[in-house]
Amino acid sequence: MTTTSETTTPDRSWIADITMTELERNPYQAYERLRQEAPLAFVPVLGSYVASTADICREIATSPDFEAVITLLAAGPSGTQRSSA
User: For 43, which DSSP code?
Assistant: First the structure.
């Protein structure tokens, strides 16, 4: 008997489809989906990571190496530092 263990990466392409108009009109639907499917996600339209659950926010804020966490998040999804301007 042969079994294979396949790890599938969740499809989070929908995050790139979030628009500023959607967030300005009614952000609750997008944030609810983020909480359920991607509690820490880079949201391109914001140019920033969104931590959408209390647990993730608490983990980031209480990290013994808080500065490293912020630096890592500021680097963005590609790992290259983004301009703050």
Answer: E
Residue for token digits 């500065």? Answer: 67
Q: How far apart are CA 58 and CA 10, in angstroms?
A: 24
Is residue 64 classed as helix, strand or coil in its secondary structure? coil
Phi, psi for 8 (deg, rounded to 5): -105, 140
Residue among 24, 29, 26, 28 nearest 45 (CA): 24
Check residue 46 and give its pLDDT.
95
60: Cα within 13 Å, side-chain hemisphere: 17
* pTM assigned to the model: 0.68
